[in-house]
Specification:
- The chain is of the alpha/beta class.
- It has two domains: 183 residues, Vaccinia Virus protein VP39 (Rossmann fold, 3-Layer(aba) Sandwich), CATH 3.40.50.150; 101 residues, DNA polymerase, domain 1 (Orthogonal Bundle).
- Helices cover 39% and strands 15% of the residues.
- The protein is built from twelve helices and nine strands.
- The strands form two sheets. Strands 3-2-1-4-5-9-8 form a seven-stranded mixed sheet, with helices on both faces. A two-stranded antiparallel sheet has the order 6-7.
- A hairpin with a 5-residue loop joins strand 6 and strand 7.
- Helix 6 packs across helix 7, helix 6 packs across helix 9 and helix 10 packs parallel to helix 11.
- 40% of the residues are buried.
Length: 300
Amino acid sequence: MSEYHNPVLLKESVDGLIVNPDGVYVDVTFGGGGHSREILSRLTEKGHLVGFDQDEDVLANIPDDDRFTFVRHNFRFLKNFLRYLEFDKVDGILGDLGVSSHDFDEADRGFSFRFDARLDMRMNQKATKDAAHVVNNYSEEDLVRIFREYGELKNARSIVNRLVAARSKKPIVTTKEFTDIVKLCLPRNAEKKFLAMAFQALRIEVNDELEVLKDFLIHAKEVLKPGGHLSIITYHSLEDRLVKNFFKAGNFEGKVEKDFYGNVNTPFELVNRKVIIPSNEEIEENPRARSAKLRIARLK
């Protein structure tokens, strides 16, 4: 279903992934299936692909292909499910960490300030904590931390002061109610940019995105074969920093350790020394690709 999501950096991410057409690969962010179909097109009859996604809406996109296995779960449990499927080691793993166009365009999912809907933002619709719960029940200090760290909003304190004052009168339950309050603290000439940052902060908290990413990267290192490739597309600096540091040093702080002889101890070798970004043509065709960054690493 091409209308579900236009895959970003499709050729570049898959070019950097496939090391053995007979091998086993994982697409941990199946979504619309665009990257998965491209991977399958490059595999022989002996190859196999495992796709992960926790969103019920993606089920209609699953390809009818014996070489494909779908796992409807969060990719933070990558190692557990691969072991269950009896794939102890794999040749490559791809992750496109962006929210799908489908989720942004589905008004009732509450991911976008373009629509008036319940403050939801859950990737997994079975999860109990949504954005409305965060806004109405978190402490003032926790909300400041979320908007400052996850949204990188310098005026997080003033935003939270207005939210706390508003929720004391009645719960904030819709995207419009939230947007109308936050707008009061934003410069009009950059309103959309800062609203997007505020929504990003809530979404990261609701879905525990940064901790999920850390768990996934640790699992990925453990299930990759030596020489296997990890191809990751990020969309904001918080994700990109974690991936960059992990590829560089094998940890999330980017702290490089050296042996007695001064050689850097790292489990990965960078495939692309310079981060890969979409071409002007791709951005023109798909504006949501604008912030994408692709990093590819090989397990030593």
